[in-house]
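Progress against Task 2.4 (sequence-to-structure conversion) is shown through the following example record, which the project officer requested during the mid-term review.
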Amino acid sequence: MRFDVLILGSSSATPIYGRHPTAQLINVNEQLYLVDCGEGTQVQLIKYGVRSNRIKHIFISHLHGDHYLGLIGLISSMHLVGRKDELHIYGPPGLKEIIELHFLHSQTELRYSLYIHTTQDSTNNVVLENENLRVSTFPLSHRIACTGFRFDENKRLPAIDREKVTTIGIPTALLPLIKRGHDYTAPDGTVYRWQELTIAPAPPRSYAYCSDTVKTSSYLPYIQQVDLLYHEATFLDEMRDRAAATYHTTALQAAEIAAEVGAKKLLIGHYSARYKDLKPLLHESKSVFGATQLALEGKWYSI
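Structure tokens generated for the chain above:
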């Protein structure tokens, strides 16, 4: 099953050097989820061949403009191109008011149903669960209320061992039951345990999104053992004081966090406009956590 992340925006604060404010698209078994929606997100979706009407859920981490100012435009464009499916948005208190105020004064009545779910920045909650995954929130530590998101793939059913079931002659109609843990009794009375008739699935995968935050230990329990960790790395560590003053993280600190929580891979982004060349950020992070990659716009990262 597909579980990939497309980087749409990787810049902090402003678009610069061809980089755009923060936005990511997650594809889980061909279901699309948008995480943050900085300015120009819908243009990026078009550029990378993504139909916005396939997105059913949007998650906004906080109300600094570089993380949500593209949202009104995206919602409006979905309306203009005739969207009919409902859309769910998850975000901090105040987001609902912002959206409703815009549509009030533009006299816009959407053609589709829009549901806005308020997240809590002080607690850990499951906000979405479906057949593919579970999405939970956790508090980050930024200058304003800010929420991280963790995407956990649901445990998959085992695969049928086709060679064994064919040799035994098990009717095809019984295979779904075997996948769900039912044994098979042959006409001669032989009992075949479901475990010997199936192939164990791969372990469930996970992705954690840590938007703007100063480095603290408070959110680490929520991102333990994650397969891919996205963590902001706005500055080089030589600017650690500046990072602390602005409630951001350095590339070195992001790597320290990845190592501490036992992440398998680290993706760093939210680059300051002071860095045209991103290689120093990557080198600094890799000096502590080797499995680090830069979040590069237009690139898919498989989990």
